[in-house]
């Protein structure tokens, strides 16, 4: 079964990159948390006032513990919350922005290290013409390698421009591994800062070499 990552520029100028695994996982976790909270509530209402006081204190402690597990900058983002698989960040001289939680990359690392995978990228331009690129080998390294990309064995009609991202670590606003490319072009496996940006912001659109696109689908499939 293939994993699909869909990139869509959104109305706030941030790119929404959805990883099927991450989103479902977050959703499930959220639902479980909600159910737990509801159960705790019900238990609290049926107990005596001293019990209620103890329960309240315990709940407060649990809430405090939950807050401390969030990103240190999270409180500044309450008015502009990020998606479940994103973390809110601040940077000097820049307004609040969202970055992808590295859980998505961890999933890709675990997945692609369990066997051989290929990648297919499908793009649609502003005239609604469709293009594709396939790579017979696709893998994402572990955290120690900063989620370095391996992508080789090109075929398709887009041109082999992801070859320039091959061997590069993943770069974000707050984790610069590629000459500050993420500052202008979003998080990606940045190499030369000029060939492929499929995680770009709304104003700059999605980019593959010399052409802008309005939609991209990235699909990986196990081959062995």
Automatic annotation (TrEMBL):
GO terms for cellular component: extracellular space
SUPFAM superfamilies listed in its UniProt record: Fibrinogen C-terminal domain-like
PROSITE patterns in alphabetical order: FIBRINOGEN_C_2
Region (Disordered): 1-71
Origin superkingdom: Eukaryota
Gene3D superfamilies in UniProt: Gamma Fibrinogen, chain A, domain 1
Residues making up the signal peptide according to the UniProt record: none
Polar residues bias: start-end ranges: 13-24
Pfam families in UniProt: Fibrinogen_C
SMART domains: FBG
Compositionally biased tracts (Low complexity): 25-69
Residue stretches making up the Fibrinogen C-terminal domain: 104-224
Name of the protein this chain belongs to: Fibrinogen C-terminal domain-containing protein
Source organism per UniProt: Mytilus galloprovincialis (Mediterranean mussel)
């Amino acid at each position: 079964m293939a994993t699909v990552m869909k990139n869509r520029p959104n109305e706030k100028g941030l790119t929404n990159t959805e990883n099927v695994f991450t989103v479902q996982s977050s959703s499930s976790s959220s639902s479980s948390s909600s159910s737990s909270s509801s159960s705790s509530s019900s238990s609290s209402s049926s107990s005596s006032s001293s019990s209620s006081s103890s329960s309240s204190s315990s709940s407060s402690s649990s809430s405090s513990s939950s807050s401390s597990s969030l990103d240190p900058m999270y409180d500044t983002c309450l008015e502009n919350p990020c998606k479940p698989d994103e973390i809110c960040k601040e940077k000097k001289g820049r307004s609040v922005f969202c970055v992808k939680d590295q859980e998505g990359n961890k999933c890709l690392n675990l997945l692609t290290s369990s066997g051989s995978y290929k990648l297919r990228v499908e793009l649609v331009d502003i005239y609604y013409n469709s293009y594709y690129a396939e790579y017979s080998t696709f893998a994402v390294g572990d955290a120690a390698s900063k989620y370095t990309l391996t992508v080789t064995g090109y075929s398709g009609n887009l041109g082999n421009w992801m070859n320039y991202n091959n061997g590069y670590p993943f770069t974000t606003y707050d984790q610069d591994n590629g000459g500050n490319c993420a500052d202008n072009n979003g998080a990606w496996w940045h190499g030369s800062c000029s060939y492929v940006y499929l995680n770009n912001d709304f104003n700059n659109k999605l980019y593959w070499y010399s052409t802008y696109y309005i939609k991209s689908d990235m699909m990986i499939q196990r081959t062995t």
